[in-house]
Amino acid sequence: MTYINPRDPHISTPNLSPTEPLLFAGGCYCKKLTYTIRLATKDEARTMVCHCKDCKKTFGSVFGVTVKVPVTGVRMTGEKVMVHKSDNGSGSYSYREFCNECGSTICTYEEQAKDHFRQIALGSLDDSSAFEPRGEFYCSQREGWLPEVPGKAQFWKQ
Ligand SMILES: [Zn+2]
Ligand SMILES: [Zn+2]
User: How far is the CA of 151 from the centre of ligand 1 (A)?
Assistant: First the structure.
């Protein structure tokens, strides 16, 4: 298994120009599925918390957190990716990609975004502190005991 760590001194040296792409590594629980995300700047990523029922089921938690990035920057490794396609209830499809060995959710995307974006599960990044949410979707379905993320955008729905 090869990790590309943006802080690896062999890859990221102090002499790099500011235009050098940023690399983020991640993978599933069993480590048989890994990926890298390459971004020109962190502004290319949009990280959101979502409290909708689909995210609760997908992530097995009471909310999901994803980092939306251009699909061109995402590279999956290994042969462990399983894709689940489902009717999202509004005349289109939702996709979920997960490890077919351990079941970890790696990313989600909608039919209309299929060729453009991936919403990477934040917790699947090797360094999940690399991105912070800009806001929250479906606050109408946030658990009553869960406070809002302070100072961030709050959307009743999406
Ligand atoms: Zn796995
Ligand atoms: Zn959601």
Answer: 35
